[in-house]
Amino acid sequence: MAVRHRLIETAPENVWSVLADGTRYADWVVGTSSSTPVRGDWPELDSAIGYEVRLGPLTFHNETVVRRCVEGSVLELEAHAGPLGTARIAIELRSWGEYTLVIVDEHPLRGAGRAVHNMAVETVIQLRHRAMLARLAKVCEETGDAIDGTRVVKPAIS
């Protein structure tokens, strides 16, 4: 199971506001070029966003569905990747002092991805998670988006 974590230097509410905005999915998920809500009110249970993945001249249209949501702390998703199958992606937010510890746990559920899952695939997922968490941190720390829409200035680290 590919589990990775990162300390993001902003409050959990700020990280959650980014995760809870389905239009920002492509801002932090590696490989996606755009995202848009397609069903329900993201991130409510069974809501979904559509997203595009571009590989050279090819464009794939996929969907991610919310399977579990504990507002402000847990978001579990099922990402559909066409013929590759689906993957479970669990994102947990924990308060860590004034910051947020984000833990991501991903593994294939169905389809070809599950059938060929091995240590090499785990390594690729770990590298993808490292990049994804770096992008999420950058979005959250730079914008400081709070749930009420105000800018939150992070304290200087001495």
Task: Give a verbal description of the structure.
The chain is α+β, with helices and mostly antiparallel strands. Helix content is 26%, strand content 42%. It has four helices and seven strands. A seven-stranded antiparallel sheet has the order 1-7-6-5-4-3-2. Strand 2 and strand 3 form a beta hairpin. The protein is globular, with a radius of gyration of 15 Å. The C terminus is likely disordered.
Query: What's the count of strands?
Result: 7
Strand order of the largest sheet: 1-7-6-5-4-3-2
Please work out how many helical segments DSSP would assign.
Answer: 4
Q: Determine the mean pLDDT.
A: 84
The percent range for strand residues is 35-45%
Give keywords.
7 strands; 158 residues; 4 helices; seven-stranded antiparallel β-sheet; disordered C terminus; alpha+beta; single chain
Give the topology, please.
Blueprint: E1 2-8, H1 12-19, H2 25-28, E2 32-39, E3 48-55, E4 58-70, E5 74-80, E6 86-96, E7 99-110, H3 112-115, H4 119-143
Antiparallel strand pairs: 1-7, 2-3, 3-4, 4-5, 5-6, 6-7
Summarize this, please?
With 158 residues, the protein is α+β, with helices and mostly antiparallel strands. It has 4 helices and 7 strands, in the order E-H-H-E-E-E-E-E-E-H-H.
